[in-house]
Prior knowledge:
By secondary structure, this protein is of the alpha/beta class. The protein has helices at 9-21, 26-32, 36-39, 58-70, 73-82, 115-133, 158-166, 185-192, 212-229, 235-238, 246-252, 278-305, 312-326, 344-356, 380-384, 388-393, 415-432, 436-441, 449-452, 470-491, 502-516, 526-536, and strands spanning 41-44, 47-50, 108-109, 112-113, 147-151, 176-180, 200-205, 239-243, 259-261, 331-337, 374-376, 400-407, 460-467. The strands form three sheets. Strands 1-2-13-12-10-11 form a six-stranded mixed sheet, with helices on both faces. Strand 3 and strand 4 form a beta hairpin. The chain is globular. 6-O-phosphono-beta-D-fructofuranose is lined by residues 153-156, 206-208, 211, 214, 268-269, 354, 498, 501.
Amino acid sequence: MKQALKDLASWKVLEKHHQDMKSQSIKDLFSIDPDRGSKLNINAEGIYFDFAKHRIKGTTIELLLQLASERGFEAKRDAMFRGEKINTTENRSVLHTALRSPKNVEIFVDNHNIVPDIHEVLDKMAVFANKIRNGVWKGHTGHDIKNIVNIGIGGSDLGPVMAYEALKYFSQRNLTFRFVSNVDGSDFAEAVQDLNPDETLFIVASKTFTTLETMTNAQTARKWLLEKLGNESAVSKHFAALSTNEKEVAKFGIDTNNMFGFWDWVGGRYSMTSAIGLSTMIAIGPEKYHEMLSGFHAMDEHFRSAPLKQNIPVIMGLLTVWYNNFFDAQTQAVLPYENYLKRFPAYLQQLTMESNGKMVTLDGEKVTYETSPIYWGEPGTNGQHSFYQLIHQGTKIIPCDFIGFKKSLNQLPPHQDYLIANMIAQGEALAFGKTAEEVKMEGTDPNLVPHKVFDGNRPSSTFFLDQLNPSNLGKLVAMYEHSVFVQGVIWDVNPFDQMGVELGKVLAQKIIKDLLEPEISLQHDSSTNALIQFYKAI
Length: 538
Ligand code: F6P
């Protein structure tokens, strides 16, 4: 019989430890050990991870590691890498890590080595991507393809759009990339309004190929294309599909030669290194795409083999548990000081919250503790002039992840120095604040002193890398993927299903009927009925 989280010996010790730690400020901790800045960090895989500005000391990490050990973390991690069916509710392996394995590795699912299949798809993607990039692939009317429109939602959109924005610097600039996800027709209309169908390729990205939003947008795209090009045979030159569902792809009318497959052991939010990455590969080219995969793989290997104390995703994941479950932090901010990472927080929202936003354990028991915090964020300096006020002086504890790079991709002095100075300053201000004494010393009007005090003691991590490039992007994404796994192990939830998205989908289907049929008798609650009636009223 599995022990409940709160009954574990390490949990109980952590509860006591928290009582001690909550009365010690980060400032106190630095006074006790002025050198902690050079101790509480990990420098691995080109990432300098500073976690000294946290409400922890060495013992905290030891205890959190004991908790991980009591939860059987290492065995569970290894089971994932081996391809065991750890997604128990769906009876599936979880092998996004296999997607970035080198060719010579063997990984088995149901006695079948999947690595050759993965590389076959990667090679097919490379041929296709090069044809588009080199103008070899022609549209129906003989034009080069200049516009690539990815149609997908959730994991079939957020990874591609985030990676395109993040790696735009490396992209082929004579190609235009657009991403359509929302079922709101305005998303599609705006994406194509200045595009010429003769030069446009639609990539329909959907693991299931049944998702309402994506299928509706794909049908609209088909209509848009055929209205201008007139001929059904145009579809094969202007549509590609990324999916696990060959039958549905064929039913839609997409030539299955233009289909790039993946497998049920790749979760949607873990799929950006599967065929779902086709738009990324077209944008940056196969070589750079493989550099990105190598970055992912390097972090996978780090996660798999680095000692836990020196393991970036392990420490990250455990720190999240520390604040979430002991300090009652409700949210976690992700603040990239790199404009190209502007969609990174949105990408992480699905990765983290669709994974660990769960209320039952793997055995189906209701949890008696908090699970995933709410992840949110924006590029750093923009946030400073918006919501940072609350992080500094509000009443909530919001652990922050700062992400920065030593070198900018665009050399425009003095921008980079200003940017990084701001990032480092924010972590310092959050941790150490400003006392009333310090404010008074500045000759501040006594009435204003309380308003100008910064309590400090607000925790943050800083992730510092050399420069944003495909490999480093891969490392960062894999780092968060694995920290989510660590959290899931501690909370004993399944990070790989997403049953909480189903009910709304089913009800929407019912309501679509209610909206379309003029005389239907509404069977919902009175509020829902009234909303439907309001919509239908002329
Ligand atoms: O509804 C949630 C979800 O299933 C996500 O997990 C997934 O990434 C997204 O929808 C899109 O699914 P698909 O790729 O099958 O269209």
